[in-house]
Structures are given as structure tokens and as C-alpha cells.
Amino acid sequence: MRILEIVSGTTACGATVHTLQIAKELHRRGNALTLMGKPGAWVLEQARAAGVPTLESRMKRLPLRDLRAAAQFVRENRIEVLLAHMSGANNFAVWLSRLAKVPAVLRAHAHTIHFHWRMAHHIIAVSEQTRRYHITHNFVPPSRISTVHGFVDPARLITLDKGARQAVRAELGLSPTDFVVGVIGNIIPRKGQIYLVRALPTVVARYPQVRVLLVGVIHPPRYGEQVKREAARLGVSENLLWLGERRDVPRLLQAIDLYALPTLSDMLPMAMLEAMWAGLPILATDVGGIPEAITHGTEGWLVPPKDPDALANALIEIIENPSERARRAQNAHHRVQESFTVQPQVAKIEAILQQVAGL
Q1: Domain span including residue 120
Q2: Is 285 strand, coil or helix?
Q3: Residue 257, pLDDT score
């Protein structure tokens, strides 16, 4: 199958990492795939290093220069189907589809209201909850949207350094007795980090050795300042470590005791799936596609969003019950291993592309 995969993100994030994993696996499976991205994009650099053909485009719809160049590429390379990720690429793909007369499949990583969902030949949602959202809010016919859950690539997460836990803790100034909570993902209002900060005073009063690692890009900066001010007001600033963007997440996962996701809205976060695969207990909010991977009491703990008291109570229960942490963490690993890894999920995506392309 001849595929043009398109992504508009320029930095490393859940959507671009997934895009790269899909491109590599479709390429490995023998498809003639080219990955289109913006000049200088992280995902293109990674794809080239993996031997995946790439194409650069600014993806501007007007003037028509970029669309015409892409349409010429589609015709010359006899592309049979487009696969797009993220809003800019989705928008570009549906117009390219019409200009080049080739079907477009869009992957839905987010909840957005936009006309391009209705223009697509098919949509692949990363969770069943996301699928329902687009049927209800973007009026996508149910026959034109499928769910293929997000996934992880276990090969990306393997850490050969058996002493990584001690080494990372030493690098971060953490002691062996600290209980380390990892919050991995961009520090944005939707991710709800401020509610975890508000839960900390109750927890720290009983367990002062709790440390929270905040990993990710702060956006907008004023939200980061708001979280810092709240931590200072509550007297828990010393319990927070702001690590910024990190490229060594698999190493960090070795050093933490609990993955926490106090999000207000989410599809099916890749960072959570990675933590599950790494054998960590999970504390998350009962929103979006999260319950499709985590059952409360089996793979982790689920609490309502925007509820610091529920977060605090769950944290205390988790700290006080190491055997239960271990049981649910093991279940979480098995759940990902069975249902959320790259090869079976990309095989499902490939089948959808073949069907849309009429092959």
C-alpha cells in the first residue's frame, strides 16, 4: 500500500510520538510510506534515522503552492491513501484529498469542533469515548469512524541500565526513602496539576517524604506561575520538583513509585500507558478514555476530576498499601501488554487504510 502520512506537530508529544511509531511499523510491514511534516520537525528527524522516507511541507492552504506540490507528489508516487494526525495536518489532508483525488483518513487525538472531520473519508479515534464525542459533536456518521486505541512501543521503554532507579534519584537529589509521584505530560490547565498540589498538604502532613516530579513543557507560562504560587501558599513547594521537558522518560519511570494523572479531560494518554507498561501503580481521574484502560480497583485508582480531597485520600491509601500497589501495578502491565502495544494496534490501522483505499 502506498501511503502519505501527514503530521503538523513540530515537537515531541504524544501525538507525534504515536505518528512516528505508526510510520515505522507501517514501513516495517512493507508499505511504501512517506511521512510528511513541517521543516525541522522532530518527527522527521526521527523518521529519517529509522529509514522512513520523509517529505517537508509548510502545509499552508493559501496560497495553493503547498497543496499543489503535495498533490504532485501524490500523483507521481501513486499514493493510495492519506493518513493525517493533528489539526493542521487534518485540515491540510482533507483539501489535498480533494485536489489529488485520494481518500483521507484522519486520526482523532483530541476533542475539537471542526469541519474537517466531516470531510474525511474515515476517522480513527484513539478511544471509544473520543469516537462518541465526534459522532455527537461533529456529526460524523458512525460508519465513518472507528476506534483503535492508543498504544505504546515496548522497545522504546526498555531501560538496560539496571541501576537506573538509584542513579536517577541521586541525580534529582531524592533519597531512597522518598515516595516519588511522577506527573508526566505538558503542564497545562487541562492536565489539572494544580489539583494535585492542593491535595498535597493533607498527604505531606502524614508523609513528609512525598515528592512530586512535574515533567513537561509549561504552557501557558502563567499557568505554571499559578501552580507555583498555590504550592507556596500551601507550604508544599519543597515537595515539588520541576523537571521541564525530558527526553529520558523511560529512565525517569524507573525512579518513581506512582504515576499520577489529575487531568480534567483526556483521550487515552500515552504517558499513562507507558507508566502502566513500566509496572507502575496508576492514580488518575475518571475522565475521557482513561477508564477504557484502567478499572478502579484492578489496574489502579480512579477519582473524580477537580477533587483534591479524593486525590489526597487515594494517595494516602496508596502509600499505606504497598502490596495493593504491587498487585494493581502488575495488572496494569498485563493490561497494556494484552491490548495496547504498537504491532497489533497498527495492524488494525493498516486494515482500515486498506479498506478505505479499496484494496
Answers
A1: 2-151+341-357
A2: strand
A3: 98
